[in-house]
Amino acid sequence: MTAEQEKRVKELKRELECWREEVLALNSVLAWEKHWYPWLLIGISTTLFTFLWYLDMSVLSTVAVACLVVTAVDYLGPIARTSICARDSWSGAKERQLEDVCRALARTEHQVLSCWKSRQSIKAAWPHLYVVVEVIGLACLAYIGYTVNNMFLSYLLVTTALMLPGLKHSGFLCKLSSDVKTTFSSSIKMKKN
Questions:
Q1: DSSP for 116-184?
Q2: Non-local CB neighbours of 179 within 8 Å, separated by 6+ positions
Q3: What total number of domains does the chain contain?
Q4: Do 21 and 85 meet the contact criterion of CB atoms below 8 Å apart?
Q5: Is the pTM of this model over 0.90?
């Protein structure tokens, strides 16, 4: 990691100091450290979206309720943790786990920023190609949004986002990308012959 990324890791550790136990528990669930965690994530997502579908709230009401829940958790979380967890339960192993989580977050943040910079450089180098690709991509997204229920699309997006860390941690994404690359390269070789 670069010095800038190490600095970001230290900043993240400082920012997450109040929530370190919760961060480790959330990381454990998102990384699928137990075989039933993926099903738990899907169940939570399905229950949440079924509840939202049943209530049929407006967007403003949904945002307000979500902000209320976040505020309540932000206020009550540390209070509940001090009464449940012992102060001396934090160990060196947990500190290393927290640092690993912060490193992963810093890496992900760096990857997102580098993708954005790549997009900007493509925009500067090939503006016409950029516009064509953006227009086609956004038109496809608009068509999908028009034909498929918004609640279902949101459900798929949130569930996929919840599953991605576990898929990456288990190595499934690397295997899938290598299989796609192999298939793509072999199909190109077959076309050349």
A1: HHHHHHHHHH-HHHHHHHHHHHHHHHHHHHHHS-HHHHHHHHHHHHHHHHHHHHTTHHHHHHHHHHHHH
A2: none
A3: 1
A4: yes
A5: no
| Token couple for 156 | 């798929």
From CA 139, how far away is CA 145, in angstroms rounded? 10
What burial letters (b/e) apply to 114-139, b meaning 16+ CB within 10 Å?
A: eeeeeeeeeeeeeeeebeeeeeeeee
Domain coverage including residue 181: 3-192
pLDDT in tens, 78-124: 777 776 766 667 788 888 998 999 999 999 999 999 999 999 999 99
Structure token pair of residue 138: 């956004």
User: Which of 30, 180, 184 has the alpha carbon at shortest distance from 105?
Assistant: 30
53 touches 151 (CB < 8 A): yes
